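---------- Forwarded message ----------

FYI, see the GNAT family N-acetyltransferase record below. Original note from H. follows.
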Amino acid sequence: MLRPTFPIETERLALRPFREDDLDSLYAYQSLPEVARFLYWEPRDREESRSFLREKMAASSLEKEGDWLVLAVEWRETGDLVGEVNLQWRSREHQQGEIGYILNPSFHGKGFATEAAGVVLRLGFEGLGLHRIVGRLDGRNTASARVLERLGMRREAHLVQNEIVKGEWTDEVVYAMLREEWEARAADSDGPGGEPAQD
């Protein structure tokens, strides 16, 4: 079980549960074709974003296997909602988790995805006691792959045309990190995600 204390602050960001007043900012990026391009869903209209916001607001802790922790990523300097990061508790028995993130393209190139994803890795390994965390992405999503690589995750698999997404065969790439790798990286002076870089 994991019930973080919020907000969780980094050098530039505050991670917190979603709120009702996040709707405009959430819709601003969920409605963009370039955001939905490598995801399972199509660009959303305002009512779809409102429905998903209600789900996100309820996902502020990990109570049981299968739950998702979904956090709004806020730029502390401006108060802008720049996107979201999430952590799924995939298996209690095997101590497995999965991370993900979506950022508004207006805030790409500032290292925010790396900074925020580093927090959910820490929550998974140190808060939930996971043994292994993965990140899965569309094989064409090279920007997302760079984020996982900057976090120190290993590219473990490239599954060729293993899914039909939006009517076309797509590749899936899997990255992973073990707790011992996290601990070794965290011992470095920069720590995971310590270097701001392009998203």
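H. also flagged this: The two ends are 30 Å apart (CA to CA).
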